[in-house]
Write a structure and sequence with these properties.
8 strands; about 40% strand; eight-stranded mixed β-sheet; 3 helices; about 130 residues; 2,3-Dihydroxybiphenyl 1,2-Dioxygenase, domain 1
């Protein structure tokens, strides 16, 4: 099995501060990690749930994937991040199984991770992020 666990569930939001406030009031959640990822045009706040995260993510610029997603579909579930031991090997296995890669090679992600995205068209409608810690 290439997948080791769920790394995170990403939720696209317009207002990151409002989303953080809601999660704090509704669940008593605390932000475990917060980061701006300039290359993706997003700011994220990670709420730890057991060994996984809820990733609240908002656009920092109008051309970011999150901004485009919210414009097209509205706020809500954006992608699922699967933790893997070897991102390159997992991406290669997914492509061999018929997946359509967004990233043809792994790249740096937040928290010092290595990541690669796979298009929803080849993954039964779900955007997938492979995450290697």
């Amino acid at each position: 099995m290439i997948l080791t666990e769920i790394d995170h569930i990403a939720i696209a939001v317009r207002d990151l501060e409002a989303a953080i406030d809601y999660y704090q009031r509704a669940f008593g959640a605390k932000v475990h990690h917060r980061q701006i990822v300039e290359s993706d045009g997003v700011e994220e706040a990670l709420v730890k749930v057991a060994d996984s995260y809820i990733q609240l993510t908002a656009a920092t610029r109008d051309d970011s994937p999150i901004a485009k997603s919210i414009e097209k579909r509205g706020e809500g579930l954006h992608h699922v991040g699967y933790r893997v031991d070897d991102c390159a090997a997992a991406l290669k296995a997914m492509i061999a199984a018929g997946a359509t890669p967004i990233d043809t090679v792994p790249r740096p992600g937040s928290r010092g991770t290595t990541v690669a995205f796979v298009h929803p068209k080849g993954s039964f409608g779900t955007l997938i992020e492979l995450v290697q810690e």
